[in-house]
């Protein structure tokens, strides 16, 4: 092998038998940076790498998805904050990755701005400030390095720009539109680059569970992700003394009302189930019994009454049992609740529920009847103090006011409450009010705000 080199070029000649191979120097590249797993929050220190969206040698740009990771609380998509080429993947799929450790090495493009700041974490619905920030008079303005560079080159103060991105993040389009207003230029419309909530679609039932196959040997696997979270949650939950209460609800009028409203909501692109009515009725009832929308501290010395009704829905997904919640139900209409449920169901079916969707619940309903069964013994999700399990709706004979046997749509409900702070009479009265709203759905109109 003979090597010739000077300050401007390197030509490497490989002589093998009678063949001479000539390699020209590659285009100058930028530095290789280690893309580290940033702090996802909630005390999470490790995650499982569910899927890689890139491989070594792939070219990526800012905000391109790199991988999906799963903690014991939510699935999170990690996106790139650099333009460059993937040089190394530090983990295989299903491996455990640790916060603060490198995920990938990225060879950045020559001349690109490399700022060692917190890595970008994308989730379907985010509660944290995940992008780089600029401190302006005590206010954090969210913008990526590329957007800040564009603003700097055009002498634009980020504090004067209104961000249209998620959580007020300033996008490239916001800078260009601001510049156009200042100069009077007319810019062509640009496509909206933010992650949009998927349009509501009918959620397909999960595929039939395949029959177990006997392999002839024992298999041991570590508990990971949501399974690991369930172990911790249920261990804490079963330390709570549960009080159970069951009743039945005649939903005949609600069935008729839903049949009447269903075509209208479908014309608006929203699938209307019974759950929005169950959730709204629960919120209206919680106004009268706020102790059911409370939490107690670990030593059960203090009780906190929650102002928001963040009502969770236990959801069966391919990842296991998840409980996303609808935020501020007390401020939402039945239609708005249905719209939000559609969004959560689409995300749940695709395994894309984010931390913000799963955290902050104050009260939970479990619709076990969508799978089967009439009664259940639901387990409280701490720090909540109450939960309800809804059975399937059955057409059963009942007596009307005139003593005639009629067809009735009956649903069983099973409640569990923290008996340290909630007595049986309170749980019973709450259930009675909730039942009255559902048996006479028109009465909900009187209390809607």
Automatic annotation (TrEMBL):
Q: Which Pfam families match?
A: 2-oxoacid_dh (PF00198), Biotin_lipoyl (PF00364), E3_binding (PF02817)
What GO annotations for molecular function exist for this entry?
A: acetyltransferase activity; dihydrolipoamide branched chain acyltransferase activity; lipoic acid binding
Family annotation (PROSITE patterns): BIOTINYL_LIPOYL, LIPOYL, PSBD
Main localization is mitochondrion
Boundaries of each Lipoyl-binding domain copy?
A: 32-107
Keywords (alphabetical) are: Acetylation, Acyltransferase, Lipoyl, Mitochondrion, Phosphoprotein, Transferase, Transit peptide
Q: What's any one GO cellular component for it?
A: cytosol
According to the entry, every stretch annotated as the Peripheral subunit-binding (PSBD) domain falls at 142-179
Cofactor(s) essential for the protein:
(R)-lipoate
User: What domain of life does the native source organism fall in?
Assistant: Eukaryota
Write out the annotated subcellular location: Mitochondrion matrix
Catalysis performed (reactions): N(6)-[(R)-dihydrolipoyl]-L-lysyl-[protein] + 2-methylpropanoyl-CoA = N(6)-[(R)-S(8)-2-methylpropanoyldihydrolipoyl]-L-lysyl-[protein] + CoA
Q: So what does this one do?
A: The branched-chain alpha-keto dehydrogenase complex catalyzes the overall conversion of alpha-keto acids to acyl-CoA and CO(2). It contains multiple copies of three enzymatic components: branched-chain alpha-keto acid decarboxylase (E1), lipoamide acyltransferase (E2) and lipoamide dehydrogenase (E3). Within this complex, the catalytic function of this enzyme is to accept, and to transfer to coenzyme A, acyl groups that are generated by the branched-chain alpha-keto acid decarboxylase component.
Family listed: Belongs to the 2-oxoacid dehydrogenase family.
- Please identify the protein, giving its name as recorded: Dihydrolipoamide acetyltransferase component of pyruvate dehydrogenase complex
Species this chain originates from: Oreochromis niloticus (Nile tilapia)
According to the entry, what is the taxonomic lineage of the organism?
Eukaryota, Metazoa, Chordata, Craniata, Vertebrata
User: Which gene is this protein's source?
Assistant: DBT
């Amino acid at each position: 092998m003979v090597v010739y080199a000077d300050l401007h070029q390197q030509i490497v000649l490989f002589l093998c038998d009678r063949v001479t191979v000539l390699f020209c120097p590659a285009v100058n590249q930028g530095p290789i940076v280690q893309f580290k797993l940033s702090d996802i929050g909630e005390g999470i220190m490790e995650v499982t790498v569910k899927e890689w969206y890139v491989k070594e040698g792939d070219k990526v740009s800012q905000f391109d998805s790199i991988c999906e990771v799963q903690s014991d609380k939510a699935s999170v998509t990690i996106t790139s904050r650099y333009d460059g080429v993937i040089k190394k993947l530090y983990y295989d799929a299903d491996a455990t990755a640790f916060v603060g450790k490198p995920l990938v090495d990225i060879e950045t493009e020559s001349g690109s701005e490399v700022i060692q700041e917190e890595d970008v974490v994308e989730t379907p619905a985010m509660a944290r400030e995940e992008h780089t920030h600029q401190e302006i008079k005590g206010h954090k303005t969210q913008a990526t390095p590329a957007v800040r560079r564009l603003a700097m080159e055009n002498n634009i103060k980020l504090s004067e720009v209104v961000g249209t991105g998620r959580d007020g993040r300033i996008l490239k389009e916001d800078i260009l539109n601001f510049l156009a207003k200042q100069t009077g230029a007319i810019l062509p419309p640009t496509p909206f680059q933010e992650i949009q909530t998927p349009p509501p679609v009918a959620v397909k039932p999960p595929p039939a569970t395949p029959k177990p196959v006997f392999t002839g040997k024992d298999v041991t696997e570590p508990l990971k992700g949501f399974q690991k979270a369930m172990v911790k949650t249920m261990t804490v939950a079963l330390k709570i003394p549960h009080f159970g209460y069951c009743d039945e609800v005649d939903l005949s009028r609600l069935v008729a009302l839903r049949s009447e409203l269903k075509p209208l909501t479908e014309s608006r692109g929203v699938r209307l189930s019974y759950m929005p009515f169950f959730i709204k009725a629960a919120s209206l009832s919680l106004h009268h019994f706020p102790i059911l929308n409370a939490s107690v501290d670990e030593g059960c010395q203090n009780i906190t009454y929650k102002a928001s009704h963040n009502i969770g829905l236990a959801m069966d997904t391919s990842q296991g049992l998840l409980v996303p919640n609808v935020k501020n139900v007390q401020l939402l209409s039945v239609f708005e609740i249905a719209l939000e449920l559609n969004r959560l169901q689409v995300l749940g079916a695709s395994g894309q529920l984010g931390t913000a969707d799963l955290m902050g619940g104050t009260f939970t309903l479990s619709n076990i009847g969508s799978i089967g069964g009439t009664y259940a013994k639901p387990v409280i999700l701490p720090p909540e103090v109450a939960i309800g399990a809804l059975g399937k709706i059955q057409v059963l004979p009942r007596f009307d006011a005139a003593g005639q046997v009629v067809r009735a749509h009956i649903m069983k409900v099973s409640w569990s409450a923290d008996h340290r702070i909630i007595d049986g009479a309170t749980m019973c009265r709450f259930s009675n009010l909730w039942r009255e709203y559902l048996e006479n759905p028109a009465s909900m109109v009187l209390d809607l705000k």
